[in-house]
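hey so i finally got around to running the thing on that chain from the lab meeting. sorry it took forever, my laptop kept dying and i had to restart like 3 times. anyway pasting the input first so we r on the same page abt which one it is
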Amino acid sequence: MPSYAIENLVPVVDPLAYVHPTAVLIGDVIIDKHCYIGPNAVLRGDFGRIVVKQGANVQDTCVVHSFPEKDCIIEENGHIGHGAILHGCHIGENALIGMNAVIMDDAVIGAESLVAATAFVKSAFECPPRSLLAGSPATIKRQLSDKEVAWKTNGTKQYHHLTKRCLQSLQQIEPLTEIQSNRPRFTDSAYKPKHEG
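ok and heres what got predicted. didnt touch it at all, straight out
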């Protein structure tokens, strides 16, 4: 992975974390064990500190950044969907940030909350645990049910498994020129989209 020091601040990645080779880490970035950092994610700790705690995932093309003397923190088992932008915010334990959502400075997303895809969470916004946020600007729509939190937790477990799969078997190769007969499929997960659950 492209990893850069700036003014002697070097990213830290636990050996049990997986960071895709195209992800970029700069400066004051700390990634704990069992984390997954996806392709083309950018964690740019050149002003404030970025902390990704145990079991969290930051998916493809996400951007994480902060202002000077501000931290951007993703608590344990935080789940950051494809293309999301986090800037100087605090994502609570086991919370889910939907695809292409934007979470601004000093916002605090409560534990086990869900921010809908494409939502825009304003600076300094705070929500209690188990909140469903949606809209632009985002507002609290309701509290999440036990079933919804369980669905989210199961989804994050799939990324824990993906971290292990990537550490064990992901490798850069040349693609095939033809589809092989009886091409296999990935079948080791019963996890389904929420609308099918």
